Amino acid sequence: MRLRVPRIRHRRRWIIGGAALLAALAVAAGFALHRPSPVGYFVSAQAQDRFLLAYRRAMAELPEPDRSLDIRTSYGVVRVYHFAGASPGSAPLLLLPGRAAPSPVWADNLPSLLRLRDVYTVDLLGEPGMSVQQRPIESAQDQARWLHEVVRALPVERLHLVGLSIGGWTAMNLAARRPEKIASVILLEPVLVFTDLAWQAVVRSIPASLPWLPRSWRDDFASWTANDAPVEDVPVADMIEAGMQAYVLKLPTPDRLGDEQLAGVRMPVLTLLAGKSRMHDSVAGADRARRVLPDGTVKVYPDASHAINGEHPEEIAADIATHLATVT
């Protein structure tokens, strides 16, 4: 039996998400040069089976979703889970995870978020997960289009986007291009929204991006992204590891959003940044967010790393509750 130490375990679970983001960014171009498929795919049936087993084990750590939706878009079929929560008549939360990290990565946050609202989670299209990419995604416009089609298909009038890491970029990219039905945006340690990635993070991600190298290389990088927190095997970490090794991404590298794009986002935006993030300069990011966003609230958690969600799930839920109370 594995002992469960909640705060440490939460931190370790979220470590892997940051590692997956940079590893995927670093290796995507190399795969694109010698892999013929124009869409993301599993390298073999055996690799897919291994990932699906890990995915099911990780899903078992979430509350039971009351329904699953497979929404057809112009670029493929997108898996969405619905979790019934408090205030069923209010606009729900739509959670967008980090790169190579599908819905089960929200296991630590769902209990507190469900005390606020109904929650939808998405397996991002073109990533390892239950969504199936069927058409090339070649631009930020394409990224916004498939997600807009998902939002449009959901049976709600409005919703709040919650984006983690690269999911933060995905949320703001949609808000800047297709804001219909979006009541507000909540960003959790977003990357490539207000600042570039730190060069140290990019350099350190290169060996972690090679799936044939020992897992210890990826674990070392994962630990570094969470400021040297130790790493242990947990179901979510196993799932992300399986996805990184088994799935080839064919997605464009996102560009940092410009001032004009950010200034065009007129709905309220709550940004929660980690004061000790190694992924980017959070101080510069906070300054730019405060300067550029027309209706923005920024908070920096002084002692948090990029693993902010696993470190501070209750504080994040409290800040989201305060934010939701101010949105008309």
Topology:
Blueprint: H1 6-34, E1 41-42, H2 45-59, E2 67-73, E3 76-83, E4 93-96, H3 110-114, E5 119-122, E6 132-133, H4 140-153, E7 159-164, H5 166-177, E8 182-188, H6 199-208, H7 215-225, H8 235-246, E9 247-248, H9 259-263, E10 269-274, H10 282-292, E11 296-301, H11 308-311, H12 313-326
Parallel strand pairs: 4-5, 4-7, 7-8, 8-10, 10-11
Antiparallel strand pairs: 1-9, 2-3, 3-5, 3-6
Helix pairs in contact: 1-6, 1-7, 1-8, 2-8, 4-5, 6-7
Protein name: Pimeloyl-ACP methyl ester carboxylesterase
Domain AB hydrolase-1: 92-228
GO molecular function, one term: catalytic activity
Query: How helix-rich are the residues, as a percent range?
Result: 40-55%
Structural class: alpha/beta
Tell me, briefly, the overall form: globular
- Succession of helices and strands: HEHEEEHEEHEHEHHHEHEHEHH
Radius of gyration: 18 Å
CATH architecture: 3-Layer(aba) Sandwich
Q: Domains counted in the coordinates: how many?
A: 1
Q: State the CATH topology.
A: Rossmann fold
Overall strand count:
11
Question: Gap between N and C termini, in Å?
Answer: 47 Å
- Summarize the main sheet: 9 strands, mixed
Pfam family, one: Abhydrolase_1
GO cellular component, one term: membrane
Protein name: Pimeloyl-ACP methyl ester carboxylesterase
Domain AB hydrolase-1: 92-228
